[in-house]
Structure formats: C-alpha cells, structure tokens
C-alpha cells in the first residue's frame, strides 16, 4: 500500500504532475498507457470498423431491392433468428440502416466489451500480477491513479471507435443513413464498451489474477448477451436487464432514441465508482477474494507437464467450449428455415450453389462450419502462445532449471492446444448436429455435422503449427499467428458471399478442407495439412531449443 510521496523537510513541495492526492500522476499514466497500446488500440478499432464496413457492403449486395429486403424481414421474423440478431421492432422499417442496427449491434457489443475488458485488466491487474504496479506506486502516484488511467485509456479507445464507425457509415453510401443515426450507431457501441470497462474495474479488485478478472468480466458479457437474446424472443423485460439490450433499443435508423445510452453511462459510472471503493479494501497485488488453500500434495496429473498445462488452460477451454456449444445450437435451430431465409437472396444462392450439396440445408451448414472452425482456431492460437506469456513473466525459467526439458514444457502446451481445439470442434459439431437434426427432422444430420466439424482438425493443427514456429524462432512476432484465423474468416466466410477469387481461399489452410456435408470427403488434403502441421511444430520446437530464454 503506497501513497503520494511527501516532500523532504526544508524543501518546497514538488508540484503534482497531473492530479493530486489519490489521483496524483494520473495524466502521466494515461500518456504511458496510450503509448503502450499505440498498436493494440488502433488494431482493435480498425478491425471492428472493417467488420462494420464489410457488413455494410454485404447488405448492399444482398439486399439491394425492396423484394430482397422484404424476404429478409420474413426470414428474420422467427424466434431463432431474433435471438441471433435483435428486437423485432427493427423489422417494421427494414432499411439498410436498420439492418445495421438489427444484425450488428448485438455481435459488435460483445467484441467492444471484450476490447474494453482487456484494456482495463491489462493496465491494472496485469501490472500488479507482474510486480510493475508496486514499482510505479513507489513514485509520486496516487492510489487511484492506475485504475483511473486505465478507464481513461478504455474511454479513448471507445470514443475513437465511435468516431470511426460514424465516419465509415456516412461514407458507405447506403440508402437511408442519416448523420444523426450514424452518430448514434457509433456512440451506442462506445456506451456499451464503457459499461463493460466499469465491470472490469470491479472484477480486477476481486481476484489477484489477470485471467480470473478477465474471465469474470467476460462471463458478465455472456450473461448480458443471453439476457438480450431471451428478451428479444420472449419476455422483453429481460432485455432491459442487459446493456447490450439497451444499445439495441436505441432503434438506430428507425426511431433514433438516445436515452437508453444514459442507462449504459450510469451503470458504467456506478461500476467504476465501485471499483475505486473496493480498491481501498485490499493490498497491492492481492484480491478481495483470498486464494483458497490447496491440497498438501499435488495430484498425480499436476506433477506431469501435460496435466499442469491443462490446469492452466482449463478455464479458457471450458469458456470456449460453452460458447461454441451455444453457437452450434443457435445455428442448428435455424437450419430448417435456411431454404426460406435464402430463397430470394441471389448472392447467397450463388454462394450456396458454389459450395454444392444435395440441399440448401447441407450447403448452409457447410458455410457456417467455417465460422465455427475459425472460432476454435482462435482458442488454439491463445493456447499455443501461452508459453510466451509464461516466459515473459519469468515463470518458465524456474521450471526449465529443473529436469524438465524444453521440448516437454512447450510440447505440453502444444498438446493441450491440439487436443483442446479438436474437442471444441467436436462439441460445436455435436451442438450443431443435435439442434439441426431437430430443426430439419433428420436424425442422420447429427453424425454428418459432427464429422463436418471434426474435418477442420488438420487446418486447426496447421494454425497451431504456425504459432509454434513463430514462438520457437521469433517469439516477439508470435502475435502474427492471429493472421491465420482472421484471414480464414475473411476469405472462407465472407469471401463466399462477396465472391472473392478462389486463389485467395487457397492461401488459407481452412480453404483446403472438404466442405462437408455438402461435398464428398477427400483424404488427400487432410493428410497434407496434417503433415504440414507436424513439420511446423517440429520446426518450432527446434527453434526453441536453439534460442536464448527471456530471463527476468
């Protein structure tokens, strides 16, 4: 616990750099935080803006006529579709603008919330966990400066996103977009982001671990999404319990209501204030929730590299598993309505025809399966790059100073990524298959869709291989492994609708997987992808054996 350093006797008081008392040094920490995130924040803001722009272009292509928009209204007016998009009121005037609000705000709010949570936890709890916060607080820095600066950095990121979203929509050339509506669309995302930044300000006080704080905040985001979906389908009161529901009920480009954003701002202010109050009731580096006493001796699996690595990845793996299961069930629930939903949308019909398949349901399932596989690949990259975080934090050095070899240590994390990623595909395919079989009335779809999901395993393993190779030889460039799933999503999922050339899809490992159940099984690319993955993993392990370890 540190406070503002008092001046020595006989000397004039040094002027506070920015702020005084508990907020002394806040301005300096804000500038430092923005300097540290000079790449992260622009990447987040640009990526989320590109999602909006690509969706705007997609809507412009798919729903260019009144007939196509009327068909979209009929296909969206079902419980399953409303749960995935937003409230029914948007359908009353389904212009290009209302499509943006209806279909994007729910999804984008989750991503904006994730951005805000990661910014706050990175600049608060992670600083304490690594010991840097104690060093910073030993200078002229107030008790609340670190949390205040983190919230300001998150606010800057959200306002920058709001501005860029507004400008992007105004330049998109869509019919029915007003300046006020575009501004409201951007600020709705910022308001939700600030709300979840406040939530993170509370969770970082509860636990002493960054992953725990992030996990609790992400669970709140998931609960908000579930409440919103449940309210849009059934009892509307449930949606009013969710910040995501508040943002959607601005009815942007339909009614343009501003007052629901006040609810987001009030909740964000209350949670942020609670975070400041709770921070005074704990020591630096500690959490309000004390760590439970473990067993006197470690269990058998924890004494082995794989078991210990699995314990480190357990929470993330379970979180992704639950999310992919829900995603599979939601997509499966609309599988029976796919033919009616797509019948009047010519670009989608062309994309589905290109995929092939005996029925629209099979073609639609093949298209969706790419998205599911990409989400599983996101977990695979996170798990594979975990050794880099352990190395940077100085925890790898003590382990490798024992009889544990470098290959066994890295290999344990790689094994968890390979097995865990495959298990995620299996869980998502099972949820998709069970829900889709019930929707279509065809029990054979269960095994077909499970097989279609598992077929992406070799491509997922190649993603792991790329991350291992980068970590082994160029650890500072490990983040470049994220290019693989991002590119796969752009060309595999959006590319089918936007009609990208085939050579772009061939650059992605996911582009070589047979698109089951619409296509026939082809074992040759599967075996080649597996061999490539094995080669990349071997290459990465060889590089890690040869390079120096980052020490503390």
List keywords for this structure.
552 residues; mainly alpha; 0% strand; disordered N terminus
User: What overall form do the CA principal axes indicate?
Assistant: globular
Number of helices: 25
Approximately how much beta-strand content do the residues carry?
under 5%
Largest sheet: none
**What string gives the helices and strands in order?**
HHHHHHHHHHHHHHHHHHHHHHHHH
Summarize the structure.
It is built from 25 helices and no strands. The protein has 552 residues and is mainly α.
Explain this structure.
The structure is a single chain. The chain is 70% helix and 0% strand. It starts with 25 loop residues before the first helix and ends in a 6-residue tail after the last helix. The protein is globular. The model is unreliable at 1-19 (pLDDT under 50). The protein is built from 25 helices and no strands. With 552 residues, it is mostly helical.
Q: Secondary-structure map with pairings?
A:
Elements: H1 26-36, H2 40-62, H3 66-76, H4 79-84, H5 96-123, H6 125-129, H7 132-137, H8 145-171, H9 179-206, H10 210-233, H11 236-239, H12 243-248, H13 260-279, H14 305-333, H15 338-342, H16 346-355, H17 360-384, H18 386-392, H19 396-400, H20 406-440, H21 445-454, H22 457-473, H23 483-498, H24 502-506, H25 523-546
Helix pairs in contact: 1-8, 2-5, 2-8, 5-8, 5-9, 5-10, 8-9, 9-10, 9-13, 14-17, 14-20, 17-20, 17-22, 17-23, 20-21, 20-22, 20-25, 22-25
């Amino acid at each position: 616990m540190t406070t503002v350093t008092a001046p020595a006797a006989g000397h004039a008081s040094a002027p506070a750099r920015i702020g005084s008392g508990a907020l002394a040094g806040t301005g300096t920490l804000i500038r430092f935080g923005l300097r540290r995130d000079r790449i992260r924040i622009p990447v987040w803001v640009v990526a989320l803006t590109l999602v909006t722009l690509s969706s705007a272009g997609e809507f412009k292509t798919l729903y260019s006529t009144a007939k196509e928009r009327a068909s979209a209204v009929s296909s969206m007016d079902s419980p399953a579709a409303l749960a995935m998009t937003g409230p029914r009121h948007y359908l009353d005037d389904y212009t290009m603008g209302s499509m943006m609000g209806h279909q994007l705000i729910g999804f984008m709010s989750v991503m904006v919330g994730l951005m805000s949570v990661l910014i706050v936890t990175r600049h608060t709890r992670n600083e304490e966990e690594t010991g840097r916060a104690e060093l910073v607080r030993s200078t002229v820095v107030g008790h609340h400066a670190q949390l205040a600066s983190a919230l300001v950095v998150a606010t800057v990121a959200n306002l920058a996103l709001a501005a860029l979203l507004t400008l992007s929509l105004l330049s998109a050339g869509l019919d029915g977009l007003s300046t006020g509506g575009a501004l409201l669309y951007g600020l709705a995302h910022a308001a939700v982001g600030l709300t979840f930044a406040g939530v993170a300000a509370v969770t970082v006080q509860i636990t002493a671990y960054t992953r725990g704080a992030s996990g609790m905040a992400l669970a709140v985001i998931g609960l908000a999404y579930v409440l919103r979906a449940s309210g849009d389908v059934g009892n509307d009161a449930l949606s009013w319990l969710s910040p995501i529901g508040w943002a959607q009920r601005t009815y942007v480009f339909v009614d343009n209501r501003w007052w629901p954003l006040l609810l987001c701002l009030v909740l964000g202010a209350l949670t942020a204030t609670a975070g400041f109050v709770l921070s005074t009731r704990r020591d630096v580096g500690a959490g309000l929730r004390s760590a439970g006493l473990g067993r006197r001796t470690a269990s058998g699996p924890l004494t082995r590299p794989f078991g210990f690595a699995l314990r480190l990845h357990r929470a993330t793996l379970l979180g992704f598993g639950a999310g992919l299961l829900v995603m599979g069930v939601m997509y499966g629930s609309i599988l029976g309505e796919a033919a009616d939903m797509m019948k009047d949308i010519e670009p989608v019909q062309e994309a589905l025809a290109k995929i092939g398949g005996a029925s629209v349901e099979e073609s639609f399932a093949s298209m969706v399966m790419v998205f599911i596989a990409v989400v599983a690949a996101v977990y695979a990259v996170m798990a594979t790059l975990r050794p880099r975080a352990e190395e940077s934090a100085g925890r790898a050095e003590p382990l490798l100073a024992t009889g544990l070899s470098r290959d066994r240590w890295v290999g344990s994390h790689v094994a968890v990524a390979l097995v865990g990623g495959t298990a995620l595909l299996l869980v998502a395919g099972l949820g998709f298959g069970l829900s889709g079989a019930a929707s279509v009335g065809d029990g054979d779809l269960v095994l077909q869709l499970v097989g279609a999901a598992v077929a992406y395993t070799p491509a997922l393993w190649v993603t792991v291989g790329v991350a291992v190779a980068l970590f082994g030889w160029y650890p500072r460039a490990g983040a470049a492994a994220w290019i693989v799933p991002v590119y796969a999503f752009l060309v595999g999922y959006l590319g089918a609708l936007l009609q990208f050339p085939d050579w772009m899809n061939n650059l992605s490992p996911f582009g070589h997987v047979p698109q089951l159940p619409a296509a026939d099984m082809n074992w040759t690319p599967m075996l080649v992808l597996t061999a490539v993955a094995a080669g990349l993993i071997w290459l990465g392990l060889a590089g890690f054996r040869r390079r120096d370890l980052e020490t503390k």
